[in-house]
């Protein structure tokens, strides 16, 4: 079955990189029994119901698929254990790379467990807090804008000084496209819509204030996007529609504040010494260009007509450039 093959691939592909590093712990304490009812013994190593249930949970198995899927996953766990045993026999669990990965995985698991404890104590945002946030950010909701854009993507290597001069003088993207075709520069042209909640505030301001006769340039490493604003429309969002996203954002914000406070507490109580670390200065932030060709250091990948507020849009709207 396709599911069995796909799940087997996932289990086996992670066997050496994750399972081996954790199984190495069992090698150090061979007498310790795993928790949960044992289902299979593979070379003396138990595979338990707890392990199987964890795999079923991670695979999001439907109730009507449980019986067949549990059999397939159990066989996959057996295959994984065989590979782990062979990898350990070949001492792959003792290589520097695996030892380092093991430490990282264990640290991540313990950290996640600790953070979940903090998260469980965070109080959910009240209706009053959600309403207040909605009222304080009209740019994201009541005054939300929708930008209809034309986008031309080219290879960044083709963004020559000559083309930049053409962009400075051009009033529309059509003029630029004619130049690209004349000079045999390959491009992809499409249209898209993006709301102000999908964009960093600085970028939203630029699109609104300088959209007339302005072609924005966004560098995306190997490709660059030339963007022209065709229209700016009102696109308000009602509180009822925005409330679930606002609640998630405020919850994440509270969680971040709680974890930041805990890290501050732990740092104050700890003795931290930087050894063999050179002084590093953060890179200066690049200012946004004020020329007619606006250079915006952010990606518009995946721009499309979306729901009233896309997932994560509020957070992007607040935090700005990333």
Can you tell me about this structure?
The radius of gyration is 27 Å and the shape is extended. The protein is α+β, with helices and mostly antiparallel strands. The protein has a five-stranded mixed sheet with strand order 4-3-6-5-7. It has a two-stranded antiparallel sheet with strand order 1-2. 50% of the residues lie in helices and 15% in strands. It is built from eleven helices and seven strands.
Main features:
five-stranded mixed beta sheet, two-stranded antiparallel sheet, alpha+beta, disordered C terminus, 322 residues
Q: Structural class, from secondary structure content?
A: alpha+beta
Low-confidence stretches: 1-18, 24-32, 284-322
* Overall form: extended
Strand order of the largest sheet: 4-3-6-5-7
* Helix-strand topology string: HHEEHHHHEHHEHEEHEH
Beta percentage is 15-25%
Radius of gyration over all CA atoms, rounded: 27 Å
Number of strands: 7
**Distance between the terminal alpha carbons, to the nearest Å?**
42 Å
In DSSP terms (H or I, runs of 4 or more residues), the helix count works out at 11
Average predicted local confidence, pLDDT: 78
Major sheet size, sense and barrel closure:
5 strands, mixed
Percent helix range: 40-55%
Oligomer: single chain
